[in-house]
Amino acid sequence: MPISLHNSLFILETDRTAYAFGLNQAGLLAHSYWGERLPFLDDYPVPPNPGAWGPFNNPSQLTPEEYPGYEDMKYVEPCLKVTQADGVRDISPRFEGCEIDGDTLRITLRDGVYPLRVTLHYRVIAAYDLIERWATLTNDGAVPMTIERAFSAQWHLPTGDHYRLTHLHGRWFDEMHIERTALAHGVTVLESRRLTSSHHHHPWFALDDGRADEEQGAVWFGLLDWSGNWKLAAEVTDFASTRVSIGVNDWDFAWRLGAGEVFTTPRSLAGFTRGGFGAASRTMHDYVREQVLPHPRVVHPVYYNSWEATLFDVNFESQARLARLAAQLGAEMFMIDDGWYKGRFSQSSGLGDWMPDPHKFPDGLERLIAYVRELGMEFGLWFEPEMVNPDSDLYRAHPEWVIRYPTREPRLGRDALHLNLARADVQAYLIDALDHMLSRYDIRYANWDMNRNVSEPGWQDAPGEPRELWIRYVDGLYHVWDSIRRKHPQVIWQSCSGGGGRIDLGMLRMSDLIWISDNSGAPDRLGIQAGYSLMFPATTMQAWVTDQQRDVPFRFRFHAAMCGMLGVGADITRWSAAEMEEARDLIAEYKTIRPLVQFGDLYRLRPADQQGFTAVQYMSKDQREGVLLAFRTFVGQHEPSLTLRLRGLIPGALYRVEGCDGVRSGAAWMNLDLQFGLYGGLGNYSSTLRRITMIDS
Ligand code: DGJ
User: How far apart are the CA of 487 and the centre of ligand 1, in A?
Assistant: First the structure.
């Protein structure tokens, strides 16, 4: 039984972990346990019943509530804030009932005076050691009320004020820096106000006591399954209680909950492991690969993307020439990026008019697609559905469709305005336009790009509360994308937002692949990839070899991209014959390790920020086969060379490691310091790829 109600305690058990809470004597739903699964239900602690601390701290302030409302003398971060029609802003959701339904628990709370019903949902994902939480708010009365905050969950850690927060931060072209910081007393807020989850922070967290590493240590981790504005408040109270609240951002947020209406928060997913950051990542990787992605088992093709080669100079000839060369390299998919559609001669025109430009393709796009197919490749096409250029037929016909205030001049971002996807007419237009393209043309891959952040977030002709835009836009985005996916389930989507501007679980429900950064310079990319790998698996991580940082050796650039789903995005008309030949060999080699990278377990043997060396290892699930990719970026002359120990092998089985003498047990390879030759004469920016093979005895 994944969920038990035992002595008034709700106990949620996964294969290896448990989470418990219950009603305390004051009638508050109080958290009591999150950690390793214990042998007996009686082992779990009863919910805490704190007393007051002097006149300044009521018991409610000291109770680790599962879903605190803004009320009482409670100054911790609440999950819920509501203003009633009469102006009352105090909300007291109290236990009314519960329902256990297989792996899901629903707890109903109700305010004693106002007709707000709060349902807390818990789903136990036992095999992955994850718990999913969300809330629904129902107005059971006749008068509207205004929701001003509705988080998805508050996750409580074992008592203590000694935790370290790991999170990811960055900016465009420089995403995914891993930051580890001791949590101070008070509230640490991470958020996005940009309408996307953003390049700047990601709705993901990990907490440990400061001693966990890749291989061991207790780590509590989680995320918000949402692609819009979000907020994470990591709080350490004066009474050594540490908790993470996560949900849609309450910045500039209001939601009018009318009579009988229901508001559902996005979901938050969290887990616990004693296996350090490596195990936390692998848990998420398995879950995303097996339970989230639209096409979990598809082997992704090596692809070529023509963006950096031709920019807006797209026509049959320029693309056919690139396609011929891409096919020679062994690419299996050819994608035209921005620049193919009506009026798209620069970044300032065409967005919104989703039909092939008749001047660029006088014989129609069909001719190019047929040519690409004859070369033995699939065809892919780029879209940026959420944007419109003022210089477009769409904008001329529907200026009222953009996000703006009537009295303010809307700011352009990359020469574009933002279509308001909260509007049903905009949604219908996009569904129709994309459906038409995907029905008419033989398109197997499609890229959904998004290249600006919002400004002047006004909703012209809003039917209700205009600040609902923040949520309704994202719901509209999911609706458009889902409708298209249902009509064309064979199409594999890639998501991009100027690189890593929208990397979140919500996107991975729509798209199997993510373009994680516009920065494809291999040394920088290793760090970006390492940050990304904390959350999501390599099978979702597009990685192109481009002409960026061309001074870095060719092999290194390829090896870096071979850590993800390999593609080429360079101007290959300028590659020398020798480069073409080397690329062909490397792509052929990649195809032999691709199943390991895509479906195997990832071990970060050496994080990207350590002394200029980085190494990752991928092992097949049956632990019979693996591959190691190791890199030396820049290290001073007197730095030590790279020494590694392998991971993820069966201790008693025998393995051979390419380039290393002898056949040894897995235990030996995991305990011996291996030198990988990335030093001495080889110099900086060298890399190596080694296969690991089990030998049948
Ligand atoms: C931004 C993306 O990140 C690039 O890869 C490319 O698709 C451009 N947009 C095209 O406008």
Answer: 26
